[in-house]
Amino acid sequence: MEVSEEKTSYVVKTVYNYEGRAHSIAHSVNTVIDDVVGQQGTFGEQNHAVNIEDAVEEYDNLKRELTNISRRSIHDGKIEEGTAEAEEFNLDNFLRGVSNEAEKTGVVQKQLGVSWKNLVVKGMSAEAHTIANNANFLMGILNIPAMIFKPKIPEVTILQEFNGFCKSGEMLLVLGRPGSGCTTLLKVIANMRSSYTNIEGDVSYGGIDAITFKKHYRGQVCYNSEEDQHYPTLTAKQTLQFALRTKTPGKRLPDETRKDFVGRVLYMLGNMLGLTKQMNTVVGNAFVRGLSGGERKRLSIAEQMTTSSTINCWDCSTRGLDAASALDFVRSLRIMTDVLNKTTVATLYQASNSIFKLFDKIILLDGGYCLYFGPSDQAKTYFEDLGFYCPPRKSVPDFLTGICNPIEREFRPGFENSVPQFPVEFQERYKKSDVYREMMAELDSYESQVKATYQADDFKQAMLDEHQKRAPRSSPYISSFYQQVSALVVRQYHLLITDREALISRYGTILIQSLITASCFYNLPLSGTGSFSRGGALFLSIVFNSFIAQTELVNFMMGRPVLDKHKQYALYRPSAYYVSLVVMDIPYSLAQVILYGLCSYFITGFNLTAGKFFTFLVILFFVNMTMNGFFRMFGTFTRSFFVATQMAGFMIIASFNYVGYIIPYPKMHPWLYWYYWINPLAYAYKALLVNEMNEQSYTCEGPGNSIPYGPGYDNWDNKICTMVGGVPGQNHVLGQDYLYQALSYRVSEAWAPDFIVVIAFFLLYTAICAVAMEYFDSDSGGNVTKFYLPGKAPKTRTDEEEKERRTRQNDITEQMESMSEGTTFSWQNIQYTVPIPGGELSLLNGINGIVKPGHLTALMGSSGAGKTTLLDVLARRKTTGKVEGTVYLNGEALMNDFERITGYCEQMDVHQPAVTVREALRFSAYLRQDASVPKAEKNEYVEKIIQLLEMEDIADAQIGMVEAGAGISVEERKRLTIGMELVSKPQLLFLDEPTSGLDAQSSYNIIRFIRKLADSGWPVLCTIHQPSSILFSHFDHLLLLVRGGKTAYYGEIGQDSRTMINYFESNGGPTCSPEANPAEYILEVVGAGTAGKAARDWADVWASSNEAKLLDAELQEIDKNSKTVDREVKTYAASHWIQFRIVFGRMTLAYWRSPDYNIGRFINLMLTSLFTGFTFWKLSSSSSDMQNKLFALFSTFIMAMTLIILAQPKFMVERQFFRREYASRYYSWFPWAVSTLLVEIPYVLIFAAFFMFGFYWTAGMTNISGVVGYFYIMFVALILWSIYFGFVIAAFSENPTVAAVLNPLLLSLLFLFCGLMQPPSAMPHFWSSWMYWVDPFHYYIEGLGVNELSNINVECTDNDLLRFTPPVGKTCGEYMSNFFSYGGPGYIVNSNATQPEQCGYCIYNSGEEFYSLTFGWDVANKWRNFGVLVAFCGFNIIVFLGLVYWKRKGRR
Q1: Cβ-count burial 838-864 (b if 16+ within 10 Å, e if not)
Q2: What is the dihedral of CA 1145, 1150, 1152, 1154, to 10 degrees?
Q3: Could you give the angle at the alpha carbon of 1278 between the alpha carbons of 675 and 1316, nearest 5°?
Q4: Res 69: pLDDT
């Protein structure tokens, strides 16, 4: 959302020698001064050429004017009302003072140009990629030869061979239409080469080759992309402070501390980019309220400026800025370039003449060919001499990019047949021109000068000076590793401490979990039966403290885009970032473990000695630290959260199986017990168990603790403890004996090697993560790869085909059908307030307006004035805050169908990534056009819109996601967003910056089409940031906002904008020159931009104007005559059945094209099934294998954890698309929710079958058809329950972090109360009376347990037998007869044995005896258990549907 902002003017930083730079000084000052404030006739597109001879004389006069507009601070947010008070800042004193000090210090100035020769760049062609689906992805995995002998990838040449350069102190503008190679050129200059298949030619950085430059000076050439990547919960100040701390030079001004340097640069950037008032505002993003889009863009610019990079590449960095702010930004670049001798290369869409004239040279690209490279002031003349015609008021950049479009070209009379037609002809003609010869001569001269002046040596010396004391001199990082870690720790602290929701949920979860776990194992008895529960309690301590670490994977993956950007900036080593995470883990993990220990240790009744308690805490602390590294390790090797979670999920299941609790070490099979030795949790569990049981004595008195027991069995000479380690004749077992005989644990190994090995694993994971992050370059460089349907990749068109396509597009625009009836939309006195700490903030104040049939109304204002907020309010998209005012559609109050019959193109381009462009457009048309329209007609209209928006080449391309490096480009997404609304044939159209990020021709096509819509009767309200004169001339009405959400003007624009201009001129505004761009004029008048200052309070002027009164009267008349709605109101165009059919079809398609999710889950399940099956290989019917069979089944629902975790991000991603589409009333929430549930079922059936194949028979389960079938349907029910439970958690949580914190709590509780680790008879009555019965895992494990064991007769092995000596004169059978008559379990294998032979006792007769006595299960409940588990699935479905309905609208 937009937050109102204040702007301040430039403050220029320099720390270099300033003498001998008269030309540059004057140049920079001229650049700043032109058009800054409202002097008569100085607005818009004017001549900014610099008179070098007069520059020095002009400087003294101009600097005083600049000083007057330099303001150190702005008070009370009144800049636009003209009442701001400024603390005067003397630019001359500032520059000279800093320069003189720097000169005395002997600072060598950093300056470096860039040049390239014979540059050719190649990438993968379109046919190289087809859309992945589950089938072809799986076949690709199985196609081993293709993986070994990779076929040659088809290539396409992105940049054809050409030469160029940009010297230090120069600005180079790269122009061209999207796809012409502009971004590629910038990335190659920025040394970002990883996303290209081949780069030929030489790129030289002042004589330094690209490889050397990347190794030693990366960060001295920086690339600023279109997308803003920041931590949303940091403030603007914290973001910039962090960057500056890592980029503080070693050699600074005398007596200037690091803190002083950071403060000085912050002051400069805040004033230069108008961020002074926003410094303490959180950055925000689509989900966190913070800076507006324009402010966030300026923060991205400021962040790159903190790097002090020598060469700067700016890729469409004015996207999202208003015209005045864009001009101010480029002026800032001009100042920095001149004063600090920087090299600046930029691509800009829709640049005005004012911006264009600030550049020294330009490159014009088309199809990878260089059409022109030369001085900017000669470009227009060059093409006019070729025979092209530039119409009046068309800006030069628009004229130049228009030349790349055959349809847009205009010719001078007589030149129609002689001008070049194709890009290769343009390049050939250019290479024969005088401009080319002059540029090549200048290039040769520049290269000679570089060698003669030893520019590279000077640069290297400057870099040495910039490095701090302990920073390696050959490193691209200027701060030492310690300083990087220090700065990162501070940033990490701010990130953690500000996320209060995550903190509360994390420690609240730990508190609840520890108390519940301890109460379940309340005061464990020191007896044989209590020993197993003791092991279970310690196992759960490890499980929970491992689970909670899984949240770190989520946080780590979410921070990757920022890390990749900072790595390119060379702010810090990625390994330093990881070390900072570990450092900040220490206090948080310590607090977590202490809280857990204090709540659980004493209640459970663990060994109550101080040493053992603190040992418990220390071991758990290192377990948590180790598992943090364990989970992050998977995040370092892949950018896919799904892949990382799947790898981590399989490994954590394997780790739990091989801890030593589920299957003791002596029982492990030799082919997999090696995993026990590489499992840190095994060493931790062993150390915890030894710490607990060593030197403890466990009594064998009481039923079940000894054999035999009961009346007449009191002589311990003829009894033995059931606990392993018992000695005949002894009524207790020593803990150390149990540990050695049952588990092969030696108490002497608890500290060394066990504890030492846990620490070693912690250090190993830390080292692996740090090294992997340092050397694994997973960033695609922001390049997006397109994926097409098979056989649908676009082919290169012939010139005739291209001309035909253009003609067809023009015809569609001209033949726009008229609306049968016009729509009038009005709003009066709109007020919008949002809650803030301590009160409310008003974002819109009394906004009035009306859009009538045929009106194309521009909504304009500076960044942060409330344009997007107003559109959100009018389009009924706001879900937070309070909206007041009256809104009417055709004189009627808004009804439930308003969102459906209106189109709203939002700033955020949110689309389902799995489908193609054509599929997405048809989806919108099918659901939003009237149900009576035939499907064929809807398809035909979709094809028209595809042609109109020039999307034929991407119609069969998958939309994808930019952040994943796959799909259509940012610019193409913007066109798709517009197309999604146009295909619905709305009665009213809202557009939020529809041309932002588009080139001039695409913008013109869209605005021209919108004009045609308006002319056909559609009313349109459209925000627009940087319109050229030609674009602006298409609008007939204007609503102008100023900061604070107030109206500065509403009304007609008039012929040549005279109505609007006359209003401002007549009310005290400056005169607008005939050559000026009216859009820039009005923004400058009301004080937009970073340095703007309004002469009057234009909101007050409007409020008292006659125009405002006439508007009020008209709106009051509409209100007075408002009528009740008598038409049929349909919230949705399609019926619920049609909605479900279409939504379910798309959901099915999206799942089919999500192999990372589905094939990933399949591989995960198969690995888990095989691993578990071979772990419990061919279990027998011995008494010990009864327990092992249950734990083998237990492993199947440990796997449920992975399914739950994987289901959550999938749902959250799908929910983003649902909320956008639901807000536009594509469909109801119910069809979408049901589709989300149903689409999983076929995958679940397949997954369960394959899991059973891998696990069931390898583990030696009962091979009876009825038993096998029951296992399958029970497992299907478990998987469905798990996925739906994951959906429930995700539907409740607004972000992945909250879900990741809830997972360990809920899953641990489900494991705890299922009755396996703590039988219900041993639970406190409070829990066994209800929690045991509401745990679905109880019914699952009981159902599978009785299903498997009820058919087994136990046959004990020698190792399973308990041996004791019968009394003298009695056989074993005679001695045990009373025991069995009392109902004692088991049997004697040698009934006739007498002394001295010992009796061999098997503790169970059958599987049924085992589970009924131990757990109280009953085979009669087998089908009841299945029914209850199915009922739990149904319960999850009901809760899920309720949560989807409750949270169907996102917060905005």
Answers
A1: eeeebbbbbbbbbbbbbbbbbbbbbbb
A2: -170
A3: 60
A4: 36
One-character DSSP codes across 180-225: SSHHHHHHHHTT--TT-SEEEEEEEETTEEHHHHHHHHTTSEEEE-
Report CA-CA distances (Å) from 643 to 557, 613, 1155, 1156, 1252. Answer: 11, 38, 10, 7, 23
What value does the mean pLDDT take over residues 772-791? 71
Query: What does each C-alpha distance from 987 to 873, 934, 1013 come to in angstroms?
Result: 18, 19, 10
Does the pLDDT at position 217 exceed 90?
A: no
Please count the CA atoms within 13 angstroms of the CA of 743 that sit on its side-chain side.
Answer: 28
Return the half-sphere exposure (C-beta side, CA atoms, 13 A cut-off) of residue 83: 8
Q: What is the pLDDT of residues 1193-1204, one digit of tens each?
A: 888 877 777 788
Strand ranges (DSSP E) for 1132-1209? none
Q: Which two tokens stand for residue 1373?
A: 């059978």
Closest CA to 340 of 95, 678, 691: 95
Tokens linked to 935: 């499907």
Q: Are 706 and 733 within 8 A, CB to CB?
A: no
Q: Is the pLDDT score of 784 beyond 70?
A: no
Q: Which residue has the higher pLDDT, 198 or 1289?
A: 1289
| C-alpha to C-alpha distance for 383 and 410, rounded to whole angstroms | 11
Q: Is there a contact between 533 and 1314 (Cβ–Cβ < 8 Å)?
A: no
Phi, psi of 887 (to 5 degrees): -130, 135
Separation CA 831–CA 1173 (nearest Å): 65
CA 1391 to chain CA mean position, Å = 70
**Better-scored residue on pLDDT, 405 or 159:** 159
Amino acid (one-letter) located at 599: C
Q: CA 1183 to CA 1409: how far, in whole Å?
A: 11
In the chain, the amino acid numbered 371 is: L
CA dist 981 and 990 (Å) reads: 9
* Cα 513–chain centre separation: 30
CA distance linking residue 61 with residue 66, whole number of Å? 9
Using alpha carbons only, give the angle 689, 707, 741 rounded to the nearest 5 degrees.
30
Residue among 969, 967, 984, 988 at smallest CA distance from 923: 984
Q: How many CB atoms lie within 10 A of CB 1104?
A: 9
The answer, as to whether pTM is greater than 0.85, is no
Q: Are 860 and 1039 in contact (CB under 8 A)?
A: yes
Closest CA to 1217 of 1202, 1229, 1201: 1229
Q: Kindly state the DSSP code that residue 1400 receives in the 8-state scheme.
A: E
Number of residues assigned to the chain: 1452
Q: Are 366 and 408 in contact (CB under 8 A)?
A: no
Instruction: Give the type of residue at 30.
Output: N
- pLDDT tier at 781, thresholds 50, 70, 90: very low
Of the candidates 1056, 1174, 768, the one whose C-alpha atom is nearest the C-alpha of residue 44 is 1056
Question: Do β-strands 902-905 and 988-992 pair in parallel, antiparallel, or remain unpaired?
Answer: parallel
Q: Is the backbone peptide bond immediately before 1396 cis, with ω within 30 degrees of 0?
A: yes
Integer Cα distance of 630 and 583 in angstroms: 16
- E strands in 549-597: none
* Helices and strands: H and E segment counts in the chain: 53, 31
Q: What are phi and psi of 818, to 5 degrees?
A: -85, 155
Mean pLDDT for the stretch of residues 791-810: 72
For 856, 1000, 1103, 1447, the CA distances from 1020, given in Å and listed in that order, are: 5, 20, 24, 30
d(CA 889, CA 883): 17
How far is residue 545's CA from residue 1225's CA, in Å, rounded to a whole number? 44
List the one residue out of 676, 549, 694 whose CA is nearest residue 620. 549
